[in-house]
Amino acid sequence: MDVNGGGELHNNQFYQCEESKPLLGEMSDGHNNAKPGAGPCKRPLHHCSSSGMRYKLLHEGDIQVCVLKHPRTFLSKILTSKFLRRWEPHHLTLTDSCLSSATPTGYMETSLSYSSIEDLQLLSWDNAPKYCIQLSFPGGTVLLQAANSYLRDQWFHSLQWKKKIYKYRKVLNNPSRWDVVLKEIRALVDMALSSPLQDESIHQAPLHIISTLLAENSSLSAQDHENIIVAIAPLLENNHPPPDLCEFFCKHCRERPRSMVVIEVFTPVVQRILKHNMDFGKCPRLRLFTQEYILALNELNGGMEVVKKFVHSMHGPTGHCPHPRVLPNLVAVIDLLSFFFREFILNRDNSPSLKEIRNGCQQLNDRKPPIPPQPPHPAPTNPPIPISSPTPSLPLSPPPSIVNSSEILVELERNNNSANVKKKAGPAGGDSEPNLIDCLLVSPAVNTLSIQLPAQADRVLGCFALILKMLSDYDDWRPALASLLQPIPFPKEELKYVIQRFAEDPRQEVHSCLLSVRSGKDGWFQLYSPGGVACDDDGELFASMVHILMGSCYKTKKFLLSLAENKLGPCMLLALRGNQTMVEILCLMLEYNIIENKDTQLQIISTLESTQVGFRMYEQLCDRQRELKELQRKGGPTRLTLPSKSTDADLARLLSSGSFGNLENLSLAFTNVTSACAEQLIKLPSLKQLNLWSTQFGDAGLRLLSEHLACLQVLNLCETPVTDAGLVALSSMKSLCSLNMNSTKLTADTYEDLKVTPPQPNLPLGVQQKWQTILELSSRTVLNHK
């Protein structure tokens, strides 16, 4: 007897019990009394056998087949005896409707439909063929013999599943009574949850059947909707809903946003989507369903507070969100483009006048009856009319014309030559409603077009803006959010709070996203500068951006040159109003000789002297310049070594005590100087050799040296905390011919780049050999680091 006989008997009894249940059998009272809001997902479920075996759903495979016809004569009894039984090898395929063979000959010349199978069971009696499955059909029996017990059980469970799912698909395809249909849906869900098959299609197949049922029967009542959603809720705990089901959920969220089903059933589904979805582009209806769910939360009594709690639940109580996909999915759901073209609002409200603006060609007499709301579509062929035009209105223009068109308010400002628009009063959407396109085409000299959306649209945008603000309040999400928003900087008031949060963050990876993603493209920094399209605060946000950027690694000549070239006027205007950051910027421009034009220099000086803070800082600049000239006056030593344990203050005190215009060799090895001493080192114009061995001199100081010490030839950075970011700045030091980077944080890739391309590629052969030797000495640390 087979050692697995006990398990076989148990499986046999279990599935015989399942098979004996009528397909349209009565459900328990607990199922009949299930109500939304009273634990809809807590229905008792049937579980699979206690053995805990799991199987992969079979779609095809090799197996031995024997067909036994029901004996009608004595001769047929002899031919069907076990001694004369003949087995045929077949490669069987389990389709959605039948069992067929790849070689339709012999026993499997014709396919065996699932509807013709009367019984399906394992053979476990004495002297039965080993590892066999019995399929009973009218007029005979089909025996399937597998190679082992596990493969036999896998074939048995797969056939059982295919047979039942085929029956449920037929029953639910032509529903007659919805009370019976609801019972069948519950039985289908229980069957999927109790199946020992472990496959994605086990849960997806019932969902697709139910979604097809709902799509073909759109006249269901709201109560039927809720009952079906509650019934399929257990299947959605670990599976995304299919597209048709998402559309059904969207409809329910729009029509009944206050339903308890939205909170109790949809919440875990949406949470799973946000945590695990990898690409909304492949499943756009998941994104639309998540949008509708969030907007349904916004319609509750709590409104914004409920949305806040939901976003907080997605982040978690700790300081770091454990799910990396939540933030990008939320940003995708917010629909940032709605802040520009408001495409989502156009589709949601389904306003004909708004569609006229989007398409630019629909006429009043061609309007069709409103269609059901659809998910957001791609951008139309004809570009939408921009909501605001940057062209300023001309003086002495007539008062703006107001055109009420259905759900929107359009304001047109015209020149003196503009023709008058004839407006007809009438009910919204009637024949007397003015044609918005005709209004727009009356005069080609339309200067400004402003569209006021209804309160519902503003509520939607307000919800999206709130979520975006909340995302920017989480410290761990802010760097990734900044990088997501950097390529699409659009000038909207709703985003100003988010940009302020970026400008207040001291981390470089956050506030560096304020700059443009590439040259020639405006970023947040340009948009919020005085005169920019988004500036509405007299440059306060722009000043805070400059302050945070100047406080980090952007305190360089390159950044100051960019400001002097593109934003000198706004900087002078803000300095004239007493902004301390801009006063400091102008002083640095003078100190570093950024401005070459004498008239511009005099204008900057006049601007600085016009305010008290500017006058004080300009006086300090003049004092520093006089000290610098005295320091750079020819004379003094050519070599200088500071004692160990010296600090930045000691170096500043020493250099201010005399003239060091001839100083060429300075050793700060084994001192306590930091990157702050770079402010003093750049005042030594003749410096050629600098030893910073075993100091705390870092990347920020290295960048400053690379911009001011053009004559530096030898630099020792051994045992300093410099990294690749600082070493890259050395490419601008064309005179550098010796560099010691031993025991630094230099990576192998940067080391190889420096070996191939030294800062000065046209060095003499002897100097190049010395450069290679120094790098070889540094390679020991790099190799150990690898």
From TrEMBL:
CDD domains, sorted: PH
Single GO cellular component term: cytosol
Domain PH: 57-166
InterPro entries, A to Z: CMIP (IPR052813), LRR_dom_sf (IPR032675), PH_CMIP (IPR056429), PH_domain (IPR001849)
Disordered: region residues: 363-398
Spans through the membrane: none
Domain of life: Eukaryota
Pfam families, A to Z: PH_21
Residue ranges, compositional bias (Pro residues): 370-398
PANTHER family, per database record: C-MAF-INDUCING PROTEIN, LEUCINE-RICH REPEAT-CONTAINING PROTEIN 73
Protein name stated in the entry: C-Maf inducing protein
Protein species of origin: Oryzias sinensis
